[in-house]
Predict the structure of Acyl-coenzyme A oxidase.
Amino acid sequence: MEPSQKVEDKSQPSIATVTRRIQRLSLHLIPLPPLQCSPQLDMLTCAKANKQEVDVASLSSYMRGKHREIQEKIFDFFNSRPDLQTPTEISMKEHRELCLRQLLGLVREGKIKPFRYVVEDPAKYFAISEAVGSIDISLGIKFGVQYSLWGGSVLNLGTKKHRDKYFDGIDNLDYLGCFAMTELHHGSNVQGLQTVATFDPITDEFIIDTPNDGAIKWWIGNAAVHGKFATVFARLVLPTHDSKGVSDMGVHAFIVPIRDLKTHQPLPGIEINDCGHKIGLNGVDNGALRFRSVRIPRDNLLNRFGDVTRDGKYTSSLPTINKRFAATLGELVGGRVGLAHSSVGILKIAVTIAVRYSLLRQQFGPPKQPEVSILDYQSQQHKLMPMLASTYAFHFATQYLVEKYSEMKKTHDEQLVGDVHALSAGLKSYVTSFTAKSLSTCREACGGHGYAAVNRFGTLRNDHDIFQTFEGDNTVLLQQVAADLLKQYKDKFQGGALSVTWSYLRESMNTYLSQPNPVTARWESEDHLRDPKFQLDAFRYRTSRLLQSVAARLQKHTKTLGSFGAWNRCLNHLLTLAESHIESVILAKFIEAVQNQAALKLLCDLYALDRIWKDIGTYRNVDYVAPNKAKAINKLTQYLSFQVRNIAGEFIDAFDLPPYILRAPIAMQSEAYSQYTQLVGF
């Protein structure tokens, strides 16, 4: 269509819609005069896009789910306590003390007691965690260290005697604790930890030792200032009567008091140092721990999967070190589930601020015409609309992960444990990596105003960055997903059953082994491209192709390089495979969540087609998509982006985030800011 052609303007929002949006925004802001509609939208060639109606209240209720009430309770508590809201400028020492006061206030004054939900109702626990993290990510991490890591290790790795002794103190924050796994020389390789716990049968105690500098526990949250206990992961060593003298039973977890409960001074043999100022999360007091012959009672061994008798004999229901290690780490997978879930919450905040800014910020326009909203530019839509669609996709995928994790905690089904382990590894890696990149994109999309500290982008980006590393480095986690896929692939050809998440491989592998259909490869109608079957088939075809090809490459290279060398040679291929599989899972869950809701269907289609277009080379290389079909996918993706742009305000409103979360943690610091910058969250 030529720019000079007059088109019917169906994209221009009605006065009622604009008024409603302004009224909603006014809850966040000081009163402003009504915004006028932009007649220059008539000039946009894509203005024929039909604007869909969105029932924001209904969509918000669907998104927030049954735990909305407790999240609102948390938001209301902090909204009523300005003294507990994190200011833009704050020193590390002040931030740490504020984080502790925030946590104490939430639990003791706000009456939020989350500890029992760690096991009883994980979905409710993660809902609480998401809300807490949106107040201040440092608070969210301190909260997680206390309840999910320190508390979770007691509940999941200990037995009744440990729960009886420590539950109340952890719950009411009398027993602030740490999770001491990472060492200076070992992070991802937990089996390589060097801290030693040697049993002394004479005194019926374990002696905790740090044998060298590389074994110093490092980056331990709550250790530098506030922690009183630590769950310490160490190699359990038993004395023997043979020539070796000792027997290494592998890595186990021990409860080690690190500070006196009355004086708060470090206990004898405990050396504590401060890891200092970090890129982000400076409200969390990360410290380093060294143990010099620290004695603890034998009962302090968290003995669910392995125990030591009074006479020094080791007992376990699991026959090997590897099985005990796998069982131990399997019980700690909740940390990954929580990070994936919280990362989506952070993405919602950033997307909301960036989209709101882009809707209201105006720059340039046709000659002698008013300036247009920057979200009317295709480049801005390309940055933000697929991101908005992905935020919704990740929401439903992580909700599914939480559901599977909750089911696993109730049933302890062995197959489900393995499925959740791989799924949590993949989603944690994929979602946190995407969010990290998106935070920078959102900052850039808001131009110079995005660089102001009060808008939260800098804090969000710096605080979230470490999500890509802790609870498992993202590259390492993707390799775990790839390894599980290869195991499933091998089992398939040996007649084994595929676990739930991977079951689609049975059909799609058969499809892969046949040639692409030359007829469907050329179908380019909108109905076909928006058909969930086409979208999901395309995702799964790509995953199956990657799986078959990398399996063949590994087999080939193993003959000359050995298994380790072959894996390293194919590593980038393996990472691409894992990401492709996780994208297939995300899309499948998004499709299930649509439930005939036209607005969600629009977002789902945009997510799917944007991902296909971004990897169009893969589909073109094997003729899965013909050239004209590829062009049609690109055009439709742009069209859908504009449709989403028309109702982007409604989509971000459905997140229903409180005003002070979006605006800033403190009042504006400069009179130079206009009403406009106040309006959009700066």
Q: What stands out?
A: The mean pLDDT is 87. The longest helix spans residues 532-569. The chain has three domains: 56-168, 179-320, 333-499+517-665. The domain at 179-320 is CATH 2.40.110.10 (Butyryl-CoA Dehydrogenase, subunit A; domain 2).
